[in-house]
Amino acid sequence: MKNSLLFLIASFLIITGCEKSAVEPTPGPGELKLYLIDSPGEYDEVNIVVNRVEVHKSDTDTTTGWSVINNIKATYDLFKLRNGASSILGNAKLTPGHYTQLRLMIDSGSNVVVNGIKYNLVIPSGMESGLKLTHAFWIEADKLYELTLDFDAERSIKKLSNDYKLQPTIRVQANIVSGTISGKIMPSDANALIETTIGNDTIATLPDTTGFFKLMALPEGSYSVKITPNNTNYRDTTITNVVVVKQQDKNLGTITLPTN
To answer: What are the tens digits of pLDDT across the range 155-206?
Structure first.
């Protein structure tokens, strides 16, 4: 009888142990997704060739601690990545942990089009090891973390005597703590530049043919939005105290510029 009782207790412990493991699965990897957008420059096109994107985990060495996010070579026309448009630069599963750097391998074939003429971008020799961007973030098990890379074309391309040189200036912003500002500029022939600032960085865009604009990847806070028409028939306008809330769009509606 005693042996039978011990057998029943042992069987119960085995069964309940199995049930517990069934309802507590091992956490899976986290996921990182990278988006690419552009701030405008005075070019017809800016085409950047990227052949690999990587991130670095903080508790690994500088040589082997890189994880590949995307190794499919692609060309990104930055001119198209404005006013809410973006391109996925990479998407991959990652081991949970703390990451501190991103690295973009920019390839030859990158070019800029000015007044209809294409110029190959000179890639500095120092970029052979890749363009490194510092941005600390945590990857949590079974969760998605999204980052936006804002490529500033105006500051990233330098005119040489007979060519153009690429010196990338890229702002990295976590999507989870950022929002957007949008609106419509009228009349559409004002050809306005819309800009605001984050610290020392100027964030800018040009409206589309309908006058619509969107300033993207803005950290929470209060902003002043400056509208500068290229058409001298209209005057500059500044809208102050524009409050951005994370993961929300602040729509300013239709903004009609005053005439001179």
So the answer is: 899 988 888 999 989 999 999 999 999 999 999 899 999 999 998 889 999 9
Same domain for 44 and 150: yes
- Sign of CA pseudo-dihedral 97, 221, 91, 74: negative
Residue 70 predicted with pLDDT over 60: yes
The Cα 187–Cα 184 span in angstroms is 9
Query: Does 31 lie in the same domain as 65?
Result: yes
Domain co-membership, 77 together with 99: yes
CA distances from 181 to 64, 73, 204 (A): 40, 32, 11
Q: Give 72-91 pLDDT, tens digit per residue.
A: 999 999 988 999 999 999 99
Tokens of 14: 């085995």
Question: Which residue among 141, 168, 195 closes a domain?
Answer: 168
96: preceding bond cis by omega (within 30 degrees)? no
